[in-house]
Write a structure and sequence with these properties.
Chain lengths: 434, 393
């Protein structure tokens, strides 16, 4: 054995990293010019971006914010920025943005809309972010009635009495379902609430406001609602109401009870088979046929009812997907623990199924919010209906890009925020089953 | 069991309550429920009709014209949206950073803004920014026709060259309801026959390849078989293109695509393409990377890997949601009413409803038609889905 072993005593100097790794140049090469085909794509799309920006940026910034009509805009812009400039006429937004946001809501009452919106965020917070104190949920429960009162005005007794009726009905249901079984509880509770709505609320309201105190704020008619306020009202109400109905429908569709199941399937498939616009036609023309003669209730309420039905069918399908994705063992585990149907659903199945279906639920929400624009077809003045009105105004006749770009941008912000929230929630709830 | 009975009774009560209300309301208004109004004279015009229709035709025929218009835009939209969606979905997975980002922007931009806004926006852009027909006039016109004076894009619509036959076969009337050009029928028959023959050649070649390992060179023959006979047929029929010409205030001749159709078509297909792109992307990502690696280790080239290994597996994930996107597009086409495109919502649910005052019947019929279309599309696509499904043992 020859003694040829060699042990290095000092450290080698570290090599410089390869020039192409971790440097900007390397990144560019890997991601933009990794081959002839990729380089070509990069160049073509790069030129496209440059072209679009070169066309768009001057248009956006060489603009007029002060003109009072489109013609004036077209005169001012070449005067300010030199001959031949065609800039945007943002003045239309400056002049009409209040209308686009609030519709024809009385100007001195804008604070009520703003307050309702802020309170909505407060009411949503405990639902969206689970680490907030749970007591806030009580506020979320009261909020729909408060919001209704703030927006439409009138006496506070109607919403209060309605809320009181619902609470009493719920308590009765709780009491009876423990003593006499679930079915009796549901029937008696529901009947009581319907009876209260039909015969209790209005006479007592009249009595209280005449004999005690009206406690009323100024009434705003539904015709005065419009713009993004209207979209958010319809969207938020539809979203809030469609989730529970959707859960019930999904459970009905998954259940073994033949009649319940076929009713649910029929409802879901019917709603999913027709366009929303036909349902809105029903709301605007047919709903009055279906109700007792002489009933003539608010158009916004009618639209909200139809939008809710529409969204709940889609919601039901999304939740059914979640229910189906859950391993059968979970259902059996619930049964094995001796829980009854509702308890096992509430404590074991639904929390997991809803978690799986969050992306679908949020995209249904986004879809619903976008679909609120359809109300412009039946004559409500949502942002698109208002845009149409503004475009037919003589001062702004012929304006296209500025107006629609603004409306699109606002919708984009709402919807994009929702989709980001869904991604956040998905990551947060991912407890790692893989 | 009790729950079922209670549910049934409750449902019956609800339905009978609604029906009795309706009957009462109709009585007070003095209206009955019948469908005879469909056979009355419509006395309104429809601006886009593929079958013969005048203002003296019946409401039923108007609804039928509208239905055809709905189907036209739905089919056009589905095709464009699928092509665009697949392209964008694949490009979004590209290694090229700039391409992937632009495609992400496209997807987010289109799916986060309401489709109705896209439709009215596109319509407004078409009307406001395209040249007027008058600007094509004169010695030195501001605008000119595209592609050798054959396509005119104006703010009143787009005019395409029209295929015409100098010694054509004429039209044939089917049940006296609508007329079909015999030339088109003859052309399609010949084309399909040629494709059929060429497929037989392909199968033979496949068989030879399987038996001997050597593939005979058939593709030149296949192309010749598909291309030559139709061209000969077109020559015999005296085929030529009728180009649009500026006469008076507008273009005459050629195929006239209304702006409402184009706006609806573009907006619907761009909007839906964003959703389809996401579906395609998710489908491709759902195929595990091991499949690609396995295919490479078998020595398949990237293009073959995509065609033989990835796509067949991805298709199974892609098709079910794709079906519901097609359904959505078809249902969204009912927004045509906002740009004045006369689809079935515009005829049956719009003018017919307003003229006859038959809200109940019109809207219920409209819903039935859409239900029928939806069920039809899902049936066809489900059949296709079952043909590409995994055949398990």
């Amino acid at each position: 054995m020859s003694d040829s072993s060699f042990v290095r005593t000092e450290m080698l100097k570290s090599e410089a990293p390869p020039t192409m790794e971790g440097s900007v140049l390397g990144w560019i090469r890997n991601n933009l010019f990794s081959g002839p085909w990729n380089s070509l794509l990069t160049i073509v799309f790069g030129l496209l971006i440059v072209y679009v920006l070169a066309e768009m940026l001057p248009w956006v910034f060489l603009s007029s914010w002060t003109a009072t009509s489109l013609r004036e805009c077209r005169e001012i812009i070449p005067l300010t920025y030199g001959e031949g400039t065609t800039g945007a006429c943002w003045a239309v937004i400056r002049e009409r943005y209040l209308q686009l946001f609030y519709g024809f809501y009385p100007r001195e009452l804008y604070w009520r809309v703003n307050l309702t919106f802020v309170l909505m965020l407060v009411a949503l917070a405990p639902i969206l972010f689970p680490n907030l104190p749970r007591q806030l949920l009580y506020f979320s429960g009261v909020y729909p009635f408060l919001g209704y009162w703030l927006l439409w005005g009138g006496t506070i007794w109607t919403p209060t009495l309605t809320l009181a009726g619902l609470i009493v009905g719920y308590l009765l249901f709780n009491f009876l379902s423990e003593k006499r079984g679930l079915l009796i509880g549901v029937i008696v509770g529901t009947l009581l609430i319907i009876f209260w709505f039909l015969f209790g609320v209005i006479p007592i309201t009249v009595f209280l406001s005449e004999n005690v105190t009206p406690l009323a704020i100024e009434i705003v008619e539904s015709e005065q609602f419009g713009g993004f306020t209207l979209s958010v009202i319809i969207g938020a109400t539809g979203i809030a109401a469609s989730l529970p109905i959707g859960i019930l429908l999904a459970l009905g569709r998954k259940s073994d009870l033949l009649i319940v199941k076929s009713l649910c399937v029929g409802f879901i498939e019917f709603i999913r088979g027709v366009p929303l616009i036909t349902l809105l036609f029903v709301a605007s023309t047919l709903l009055n046929y279906f109700l007792p003669p002489g009933t003539n209730f608010d158009i916004i309420l009618r639209v909200v009812i139809m939008v809710t039905l529409f969204a709940s069918a889609y919601m039901a399908e999304v939740i059914r997907g979640g229910l189906a994705a859950l391993p059968k063992g979970q259902y059996e585990a619930g049964d094995a623990l001796g829980l009854d149907y509702w308890k096992s659903m509430r404590l074991i199945v639904l929390p997991q199924a809803l978690k799986i279906s969050i992306p679908g639920i949020v995209s249904t929400f986004i879809g619903l919010f976008k679909d609120t624009t359809l109300v412009s077809i039946i004559g409500l003045l949502d942002p698109i209906g208002l845009s149409k009105a503004i475009r037919s105004d003589t001062a702004w006749n012929g304006i296209v890009w500025e107006l629609y770009a603004f409306v699109a941008a606002v919708f984009f912000i709402f919807c994009f925020a929702m989709s980001r929230y869904s991604i956040y929630l998905e990551k947060k709830l991912e407890t790692g089953h893989r | 069991m009790t729950i079922q009975i209670v549910a049934l009774v409750g449902f019956m009560l609800l339905i009978s309550w609604l029906i009795s209300n309706t009957i009462q309301n109709l009585e007070t208004l003095g209206k009955g429920v019948d469908l005879w109004f469909l056979f009355e004279t419509s006395s309104y015009d429809i601006n886009q009709k593929l079958i013969e229709y005048t203002s003296r035709s019946t409401h039923l025929r108007a609804a039928f014209v509208g239905l055809i218009n709905t189907l036209i835009v739905a089919v056009l939209g589905c095709i464009t949206a699928t092509v665009l969606g697949i392209l964008i979905g694949i490009l979004r997975l590209s290694n090229n950073w700039i391409v992937a980002k632009i495609m992400t922007c496209w997807v987010e931009l289109f799916r986060n803004v309401p489709v109705l806004l896209w439709i009215v926006f596109t319509m407004a852009i078409l009307i406001e920014s395209l040249p007027r027909p008058a600007s094509f006039r004169g010695e030195n016109p501001e605008s000119s026709l595209l592609f050798w004076d054959s396509i005119a894009i104006t703010n009143r619509g787009t005019y395409l060259p029209e295929p015409l036959f100098s010694n054509g076969l004429g039209d044939i009337s089917i049940f006296g309801i609508f007329e079909v050009s015999l030339d088109l029928v003859a052309f399609l028959i010949v084309l399909f026959a040629c494709i059929f023959v060429s497929n037989i050649l392909k199968k033979r070649a496949d068989k030879t390849q399987q038996n001997t390992g050597h593939r005979p060179r058939v593709w030149p023959y296949r192309i010749a078989i598909i291309v030559i006979p139709p061209i000969v047929l077109l020559y015999i029929l005296g085929f030529y293109l009728g180009k649009p010409e500026l006469k008076g205030f507008n273009f005459q001749g050629g195929i006239y695509l209304r702006n409402s159709l184009i706006a609806l078509w573009l907006a619907l297909s761009f909007y839906t393409s964003a959703f389809i792109a996401e579906i395609v992307r998710a489908g491709i990502l759902a195929v595990s990377k091991g499949q690609t690696e396995a295919s490479y280790s078998l020595g398949l080239r990237p293009s073959l890997t995509m065609n033989l290994i990835i796509l067949p597996q991805a298709l199974r994930v892609i098709i079910p949601p794709l079906i519901s996107q097609f359904l959505n597009l078809t249902k969204n086409s009912s927004l045509a009413i906002s740009v004045g495109y006369m689809d079935i919502t515009g005829t049956l649910g719009g003018i017919t409803l307003n003229q006859t005052g038959r809200e109940l019947e019109s809207i219920l019929l409209l819903m039935l038609v859409f239900l029928g279309i939806s069920l039809g599309i899902s049936a066809v696509m489900n059949w296709y889905n079952s043909t590409v499904k995994i055949k398990e043992r």
